[in-house]
Amino acid sequence: MSSSTPRQVADAYVEAVCDLDPIVAASLGNRPGDDRLPDFGPTGLEAEAELARTTLAELDRVLEADPTLLDHPVERGCARLLRERLGAELAVHESGEGYRSLSNLFSPVHSVRQVFMLMPAVTEEDWAVIARRMARVPEAYRGYRASLDEGARRGLFVAPRQVRTVVGQLDEWLAGPYFATFVAAGPDTLRSQLHEAAGAADAAVAGMRDYLRDEYAPRAAGTPDAVGRERYAVAARRWTGSDLGAGQGLEEAYAWGWAEHRRILAEQWAEAEKVLPGATPMEAMRWLNEHGPAVEGVAAIRERLQAMMDEAIEALDGTHFDLAEPVRKVEAMIAPPGSAAAPYYTRPAQDFSRPGRTWLPTLGRERFPLWDLISIWYHEGVPGHHLQLAQWAYVSGELSTYQTSLGSVGANVEGWALYAERLMDELGYLADPAARLGYLDAQQLRAVRVVIDIGMHLGLPIPEDAEGVLAGHRGKPWTPELARAFLGESSGADPAFLDSELVRYLGLPGQAISYKLGERAWLAGRAAAQRARGANFDLKAWHMAALSQGSLGLDDLAAELAQL
């Protein structure tokens, strides 16, 4: 049955993606009995690209048959999003990035494990599906290895830094071992089947670790960390929904990020004085790590983060948001060993059969200072990622599944989460100097990300007004070593986190800039709407309208927000 509207084209695309990539289906929660894993091999990569091409052709056909469809705002927005997103994905495919898709976050190595955390695990049948899918892990990794081998044949490698990091992560998984530990919670009636599947999966992890360490790494030797302007522009479009590579867009973002760094630094000095008179921002943050309020124990910090989100929902619902009942549920979780260091969020199933969840990597810690966790949980949970992505699921029937899931643009989502942190500051929830210094530390990290991500990959010169560790390198190009030194001077996070962050920026070019550039668009859109409405501007109504419009890229976001 052919489609007759852009939304139907988009949702047919979602169903077809779920056929090709069952991990996407697991994320959406729409095929709970599916026990497959994707084909990560070259054939699978080409099938995904061909689906994008045929979907764009179908969109053209539908719009040629009835151009008046673009008079409908939702159809017009869906068509524009679908065209931009699939164009961005095809550009990534055509540049061969799928054949060197390895990083400490978001790569196939990780998604094969992540899918099991998204699956139902309550009934015996749930666990039977888990066992069947787990038995397919070796096949999935073989396909992924075939793609890396094809990349090697084409001369497309990931830098050794990424390989070493992922090998280290896989070592941590095997220390468990991860899959054997995961199935320990399964029913006794399936013990043999689960044990066999977990053994095969853990062996496949060991095989992938050995392949990366012993075969791939030697071939990748000498591959530079920086990807260069051309690859960076393709990647940045994927994460932002904007062609920043055109003209001086990347240079403008770099200069703006540096200006934000300087602005935030001045605020940090003022807040540090309140925390510890006479201290520098870094001294104040180190003092808070040692002497500020903290929670002891992993179970206790999970409970504290859950309470923080529950309390935020109670306080904000009816005052600054109108939350549907399904949106009011979110769970705080502890990330499994071998995760990247940054906290993260997983969205709810489209039907809310699985709630939205925040995840805290503990990195082996048992003590958790609170000064730098409060703002980040407003970001990851409420009113950040959870309120946006759960609201998208709630309104998906009014828009399309695509606009509220697969069509997600990183700069929109991360921009909202940063806006959410700022909103909580504006509302007085970060009035305590320690918590506000944590908020400013998080803001500073996102500004520094813009600077070093663009600076490293494009080899831009360090600004002439740079101070501290950069003072002797003004005008010289950024290197990973200088970026790491600048991170250490600019952030109160612990060294392990900053090491992980640097690897992340180098392995996911363009992703790190999506936060602050997205926040800039959200703030510009709100300011324009306030100017247009004047005394009639209703912040709660604006929030709900903004959260109910689905995904938009940076080329459209601020303009659309201004009209709400």
Please provide a written account of the structure:
The structure is a single chain. The protein has 564 residues and is mainly alpha-helical. The protein has helices spanning 6-20, 22-28, 42-65, 73-94, 108-118, 124-134, 137-154, 160-175, 178-183, 191-220, 228-240, 249-275, 281-291, 298-316, 374-380, 385-394, 410-426, 433-458, 480-490, 495-507, 514-533, 539-547, 554-562; strands spanning 294-296, 330-334, 344-346, 356-360, 367-369. Helix 6 (124-134) packs parallel to helix 10. The mean pLDDT is 97. It holds the Pfam family DUF885.
What are its keywords?
two-stranded antiparallel sheet; 23 helices; 2 domains; mainly alpha; 3% strand; 5 strands; single chain; 564 residues; three-stranded mixed β-sheet
Largest sheet, order of strands side by side? 2-4-3
Oligomer: single chain
Taking the sheet with the most strands, its summary is: 3 strands, mixed
Radius of gyration: 23 Å
SSE-based structural type:
mainly alpha
Mean pLDDT: 97
Number of strands: 5
Number of helices: 23
Silhouette: globular
How many domains is the backbone divided into?
Answer: 2
What is the terminal separation in angstroms? 35 Å
Percent helix: 55-70%
Helix and strand pattern:
HHHHHHHHHHHHHEHEEEEHHHHHHHHH
* Spans of at least 5 consecutive residues with low confidence: none
How much beta, percentage-wise? Answer: under 5%
InterPro entries: DUF885 (IPR010281)
Pfam family, one: DUF885
